[in-house]
Amino acid sequence: MKPNYYVAHPWHGLELGPKAPDELDVFIELTPQDTVKYEIDKASGFIRVDRPQKYSNRSPTLYGFIPRTFSGEASGKHCSEVVGRPDILGDGDPIDICVLSVNPITHGNMILTVIPIGGLRMIDKGEADDKIVAVLKGDEVFGQMKDISEVPKALINKLHHYFLTYKLDPNSPSTGTVEITEVYDRVEAIKVIQFGIEDYIKKFVTV
């Protein structure tokens, strides 16, 4: 294989992997140990400090995104149809992913091979902002799980609570703009990923 002498952009330059969407290579921005919120800088591909985590919330899992996906028209339309509300849009970002691993991985800015097992249908300010849940391939504890129904309820509750509260300021009343309408299974997660791939191709590939 010809070597790549340049660092690939994590969103546009990384491949999904030959078994996508059943098995994916994903990019991790944030770990449970991080006390600040890191996020990819879309223009450069470098990791940027988005904001300090001012309060007690930290991500319960590894957190990042699926390369070459985009939450756009098809993603928003699918969310609208499922929840029965018109005019939900995609949030304009790559599809987010939470990765379960029993072994502590202490820094982000890395690629992992994962297996999707479900997700959280999150809507933020009227935009689809799905959080796919996956297991690290080969993980001794989580790696054998095939569906989110096998994950301990307490861990799903932690994810649920994190995403509903991680933007809140205790000194300001919540405006209720973020909601999670359901926790869905692996079959639905694959659909969400496929719509994200479709939106990416339409946005960045199709001329």
UniProtKB/TrEMBL annotation:
Q: What's the cofactor?
A: Mg(2+)
| Keyword Secreted appears in the UniProt entry | no
EC number(s) for this protein?
3.6.1.1
GO biological process assignments: phosphate-containing compound metabolic process
Kindly state which keywords UniProt assigns to this record, in alphabetical order. Hydrolase, Magnesium, Metal-binding
Q: Name one GO molecular function term.
A: inorganic diphosphate phosphatase activity
Residue spans crossing the bilayer = none
Enzyme class of the recorded protein, top EC level: hydrolase
Q: According to its record, what are the GO cellular component terms?
A: cytoplasm
Q: What is the name of this protein?
A: inorganic diphosphatase
The organism is: Leptospira bouyouniensis
